[in-house]
Design brief:
Elements: H1 5-13, E1 15-19, E2 22-29, E3 34-38, H2 49-55, E4 60-64, H3 82-95, E5 100-105, H4 108-121, E6 128-134, H5 148-154, H6 159-167, H7 171-179, H8 189-200, H9 208-211, H10 214-220, H11 222-230, E7 236-241, H12 249-258, E8 263-267, H13 274-277, H14 279-290
Parallel strand pairs: 3-4, 3-5, 5-6, 6-7, 7-8
Antiparallel strand pairs: 1-2, 2-4
């Protein structure tokens, strides 16, 4: 497809690597202690651009697109399980020579993050997690207030309707992202163009039904993933936007109750995409926590 100038610039600013036969786009800036950044659904590592701009003078910031997202490969014949996505995260760390990292995650990335914690607990993770920061994500899926679109994706009866909507995704995509923000003006016209290009790349909009299976996995693997969070031996912090209509503030507080050892902070007046809505506030707390 023909990319806009801004999207071409974003692509040229990163690199593509092979991870287990899968093409993965990586965007890296800075030097120093490693921040490994895990993005959410249905966006990409582009979400971290503001955080990286702020923190790259002090940290080596490594963001990447999970398969099915952004500029990474989007094969039709792949299940997009969170276990597979955790394999990709490990593969990116290995390819980048990362032996230790502070892992920061958002949205579906938080559940990939907890699978990494579970592997570390089993002493089979390929790198050491020094610290963990979790941003809004519906890790306790049963407490989340999922959107009407997510409800369509979650039910077998309405999945055909969701598939049709995904095939015809257009302006509704950006409108859907803005609907769960408190500061939708954070997205410039250029951002909107880039994000539209990234979702359309290699029919990524048509992969959303497959990607959405993570909601079911959160129920199935609750004990493994939340158990790993509770048992984490390294420092953990939870940064929660109180205006998120999906991963609502009650969910954030319930998550903190599950892991009371974690440092817990609520940010007022921000929505689901807090990392884009106020990157300075989020970056400040990551920097402070990293010590």
């Amino acid at each position: 497809m023909d990319f806009s100038e801004a999207t071409q610039h974003w692509r040229d600013s990163g690199r593509t690597i092979d991870v287990g036969g899968m093409r993965v786009f990586v965007y890296e800036r800075g030097a120093g202690p490693v921040l490994l950044l895990l993005h959410g659904f249905p966006t990409s590592g582009y979400d971290w651009r503001g955080i990286i701009d702020i923190l790259s003078p002090q940290f080596r910031c490594v963001a990447f697109d999970f398969p099915g997202y952004g500029l990474s490969a989007k094969p039709a014949a792949w299940s997009y399980s969170l276990f597979q996505q955790a394999d990709i995260a490990e593969g990116v760390a290995a390819a980048a020579g990362i032996s230790a990292a502070h892992v920061v995650s958002h949205d579906v990335g938080t559940s990939v993050h907890t699978e990494l914690l579970a592997r570390e607990r089993e002493e089979r993770l390929g790198f050491r997690i020094e610290r963990s920061t979790f941003l809004n994500g519906s890790m306790l899926q049963w407490i989340a207030t999922i959107t009407p679109f997510q409800k369509l994706l979650a039910s077998n009866e309405t999945l055909p309707q969701a598939i049709e909507m995904c095939a015809n995704a257009g302006p509704a995509y950006i409108a859907g992202l803005k609907a769960v923000m408190k500061r939708p003006e954070c997205l410039t016209a250029e951002d909107e163009q880039v994000m539209n290009d990234l979702i359309q790349f290699e029919d990524g909009n048509q992969r959303m039904p497959s990607l959405s299976l993570y909601m079911r996995e959160r129920y199935l693997h609750r004990e493994r993933w939340i158990g790993a969070l509770k048992a984490a031996a390294h420092p953990v912090q939870i940064i929660w936007a109180d205006g998120d209509p999906v991963a609502n503030v009650e969910l954030g507080r319930a998550l903190h109750a599950e892991a009371p050892q974690a440092r817990y902070t609520e940010l007022t007046g921000l929505g689901h995409f807090l990392l884009m809505e106020d990157p300075a506030a989020v970056a400040e707390r990551i920097r402070d926590f990293a010590g």
